[in-house]
């Protein structure tokens, strides 16, 4: 009698599929199989074996196993099953998230062995006109251990050039030096500074990798040397056989961090982020799955990888909202990391200068250990923060006279300044001063942003773009002008006011090209006077020792937002940006321009004590019955019309009617129309997480059976970051 197995497919379906397991084929949970599905073949993952076969149905047999070992080892499998339930996302899609694209499609879990090349002899024997071959020969000769052909192509050479050298026997194919665990020995690498007394004390409170599950919240002010603590901790405590995971919000913005880890751990460092190609992904995945003792530095999805010897998790900048996936499987990388540590019985360290209210609340409740580090490392002192009321001051490119003077002073002293603007582009809107017309996105309920560099009007909410016009499109008036501030405009004003100083813009537009952030950082790290102007991107973890002045163009955006998280995010961003000042031996100064200098939140910013502000914000959350005091989820719907969206949510509302559960809505979303889809939402808020989970499971099952108009889509977001 063949046994029955339950299989998950990579489909957005809240159900699993049963198949017969052919005799002689021993299957384990987490293993990849090929199964018939409709008229096609699909790759599936075994969820359960030896189940009771459903009565009265003839099952099809599994065709074959892709390999005889589980692609998802036990702990990873359990983690994803838990996450599927917690975030109410179909199990199949959750499990498949942990596989690189090639493996999802059923490709074999092996790497194509690559040809490696080494140089022999000298390029001097080449004819004088064979410039390209000469360059290639010299380039290969620089790599004493040999070099992969894919790297040769990446460096801009061609296969015919390589072949020409091979035919002349100037290069030979070699077997590469095996990347064995031997090369992971870290004693050949160099370290950084000794920990200070305060750092040593904080580090001593971190539980050892062998001491079972624990969660620690390392609250260390900006520049206090948290990264240095992670490095020392891993160096001292991680055994040579163990794996560790360091989650970071965005790797590309902070190549310095990876470089610092590499300095300590050399080859043992592996990176994981969205810019890897398919084969790089497979390479990293296999190392992790094979239990090689890597220290992985990765973004959000790295937490789902199939580690088999994971002994420490670190979540750097744990407050960062990019840990939460915004679409599809909407998990929080930080929270999944905590659960993973729990499953795996090892420590997790959450680090931040501005901890999320969730984590801080957990620390106050005794679930996490709170470790404080309230002095800066080395000689650096915390920056002095002051508010500058701009209510009746003339502004140029958003900058007041005192702000411009402060920049001048900073440059005169030979230092660097950083100007923080909330919006990229030239100006948030173009307005006609005759008829009042403002150009809106034809597909969204938003206005278009004016980008002067490429003379375009762009929507920041969809991909709509149109050429900018000189006159009002409605009344043809010439009094058609930009209103408000964007990075480009501030950059122009700064360039005009300080003609002898380089002005460097850092935003999504200026960093799109590969390597551009590196060249920007190089310029800043040269230490020569310059002015950095940019968005949020500048707030993230950078270490600029010569920046001594930070100007915040306008702090008021988050003060009066409808989103309950806005004040928290405002404070975090302002403190993180401020934290870029005075990180070296020179002291720093922060000037925050505002129209609300008497606002209590901004006033407490000047004292710079984040936890005091967090206490204040938590009080507001508690009295508003909001997370982290309550558990929240949002149902979102989108459709071709608003009626259809609201209809779906009207159907859900009564289903959520239960004791201890509040629902708010359904209401149109803040941007009700986006890319021509009409969006609405229903918030579910309760005092009990377990109850919320049960309720949502029931609702999702009901909804799955319903027939809604074809264009409507509904989704569920548990622990939403955005509630607008
Ligand atoms: P954080 O991660 O808390 O922002 P970093 O670890 O990046 O802080 O440290 C900030 C700066 O201080 C870095 O330039 C780092 O090299 C330096 N630093 C950290 N610890 C020490 C130390 N013990 N002695 C001297 N300099 C240090
Ligand atoms: Zn007009
Ligand atoms: Zn749009």
What structural class do helix, strand and pairing data support? alpha/beta
CATH class of the largest domain: Alpha Beta
If you average the pLDDT, what whole number results?
88
Radius of gyration: 28 Å
Q: Name the CATH superfamily assignment of the largest domain.
A: P-loop containing nucleotide triphosphate hydrolases
Number-wise, the strands total: 30
Q: Biggest β-sheet: count, sense, barrel?
A: 7 strands, parallel
Distance between the termini: 56 Å
Approximate strand percentage:
15-25%
State the CATH topology of the largest domain. Answer: Rossmann fold
Explain this structure.
The strands form seven sheets. Strands 11-12-10-13-14-9-15 form a seven-stranded parallel beta sheet, sandwiched between helices. Strands 16-26-25-17-24-23 form a six-stranded parallel beta sheet, sandwiched between helices. Strands 2-1-4-3-5 form a five-stranded antiparallel beta sheet. The chain is α/β, with parallel strands linked by helices and 724 residues long. Residues 178-188 have low confidence and may be disordered. The protein has five domains: 3-104, 3-Layer(aba) Sandwich (GIY-YIG endonuclease), CATH 3.40.1440.60; 116-181; 197-373, P-loop containing nucleotide triphosphate hydrolases (Rossmann fold, 3-Layer(aba) Sandwich); 384-427 and 484-620, P-loop containing nucleotide triphosphate hydrolases (Rossmann fold); 631-718, Alpha-Beta Plaits, CATH 3.30.70.600. Helices cover 29% and strands 24% of the residues. Helix 1 packs across helix 11 and helix 16 (566-578) runs antiparallel to helix 18. One zinc ion binds at residues 432, 434-435, 437, 472, 474-475, 477. The site of one zinc ion has 8 residues, from loops.
């Amino acid at each position: 009698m063949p046994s029955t197995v339950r299989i998950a497919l990579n489909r957005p379906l809240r159900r699993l599929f049963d198949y017969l397991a052919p005799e002689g084929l021993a299957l384990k949970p987490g293993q990849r199989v090929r199964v018939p599905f409709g008229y096609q073949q699909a790759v599936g993952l075994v969820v359960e074996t030896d189940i009771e076969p459903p009565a009265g149905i003839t099952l099809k047999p599994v065709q074959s196993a892709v390999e005889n070992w589980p692609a998802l080892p036990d702990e990873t499998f359990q983690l994803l099953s838990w996450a599927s339930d917690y975030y109410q996302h179909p199990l199949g899609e959750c499990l498949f998230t942990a596989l690189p694209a090639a493996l999802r499609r059923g490709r074999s879990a092996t790497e194509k062995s690559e040809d490696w090349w080494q140089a022999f002899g000298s390029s001097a024997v080449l004819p004088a006109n064979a410039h390209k071959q000469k360059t290639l020969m010299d380039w290969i000769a620089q790599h004493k251990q040999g070099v992969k052909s894919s790297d040769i192509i990446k460096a801009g050479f061609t296969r015919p050039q390589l072949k020409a050298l091979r035919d002349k026997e100037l290069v030979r194919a070699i077997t590469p030096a095996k990347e064995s665990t031997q090369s992971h020995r870290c004693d050949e690498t160099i370290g950084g500074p000794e920990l200070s007394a305060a750092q040593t004390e904080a580090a001593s409170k971190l539980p050892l990798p062998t001491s079972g599950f624990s969660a620690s919240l390392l609250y260390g002010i900006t520049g206090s040397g948290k990264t240095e603590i992670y490095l020392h901790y891993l160096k001292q405590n991680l055994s040579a056989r163990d794996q560790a995971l360091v989650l970071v919000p965005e790797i590309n913005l902070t190549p310095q961090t990876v470089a610092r880890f590499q300095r300590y751990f050399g080859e043992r460092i592996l990176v994981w982020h969205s810019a890897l190609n398919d084969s790089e992904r497979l390479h990293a995945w296999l190392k992790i799955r094979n239990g090689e003792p890597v220290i992985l530095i990765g973004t959000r999805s790295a937490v789902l990888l199939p580690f088999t010897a994971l002994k420490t998790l670190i979540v750097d900048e744990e407050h960062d909202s990019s840990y939460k996936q915004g679409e599809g499987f909407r998990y929080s990388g930080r929270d999944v990391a905590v659960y993973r540590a729990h499953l795996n019985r090892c420590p997790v360290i959450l680090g931040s200068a501005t901890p999320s209210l969730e984590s801080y609340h957990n620390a106050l409740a005794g679930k996490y250990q709170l470790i404080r580090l309230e002095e800066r490392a080395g000689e650096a002192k915390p920056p002095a923060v002051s508010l500058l009321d701009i209510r009746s001051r003339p502004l140029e490119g958003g900058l007041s006279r005192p702000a411009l003077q402060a920049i001048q002073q900073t440059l005169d002293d030979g230092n660097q300044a950083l100007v923080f603007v909330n919006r990229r582009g030239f100006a948030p809107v173009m307005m006609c001063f005759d008829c009042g017309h403002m150009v809106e996105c034809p597909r969204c309920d938003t206005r278009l942003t004016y980008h002067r560099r490429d003379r375009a009007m762009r929507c920041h909410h969809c991909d709509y773009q149109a050429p900018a016009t000189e006159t009002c499109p409605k009344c043809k008036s010439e009094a058609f002008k930009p209103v408000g501030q964007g990075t480009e405009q501030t950059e122009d004003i700064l360039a005009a006011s300080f003609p002898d100083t380089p002005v460097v813009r850092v935003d999504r537009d200026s960093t799109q090209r590969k390597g551009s952030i590196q060249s920007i950082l190089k310029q800043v790290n040269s230490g020569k006077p310059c002015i950095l102007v940019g968005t949020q991107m500048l707030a993230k973890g950078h270490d600029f020792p010569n920046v001594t002045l930070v100007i915040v163009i306008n702090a008021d955006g988050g003060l009066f937002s409808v989103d309950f998280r806005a004040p928290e995010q405002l404070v975090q961003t302002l403190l993180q940006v401020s934290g870029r000042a005075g990180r070296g031996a020179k002291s720093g100064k922060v000037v925050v321009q505002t129209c609300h200098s008497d606002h209590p939140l901004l006033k407490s910013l000047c004292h710079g004590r984040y936890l005091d502000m967090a206490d204040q914000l938590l009080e507001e959350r508690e009295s508003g019955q909001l997370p982290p005091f309550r558990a929240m989820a949002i149902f979102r719907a989108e459709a071709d019309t608003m009626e259809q969206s609201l209809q779906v949510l009207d159907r859900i509302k009564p289903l959520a009617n239960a004791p201890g559960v509040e629902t708010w809505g359904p209401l149109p979303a803040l941007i009700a129309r986006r890319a021509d889809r009409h969006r609405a939402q229903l918030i579910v808020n309760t005092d009990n997480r377990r109850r919320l989970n049960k309720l949502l499971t029931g609702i999702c099952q009901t909804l799955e059976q319903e027939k809604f108009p074809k264009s409507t889509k509904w989704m569920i977001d548990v622990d939403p970051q955005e509630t607008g």
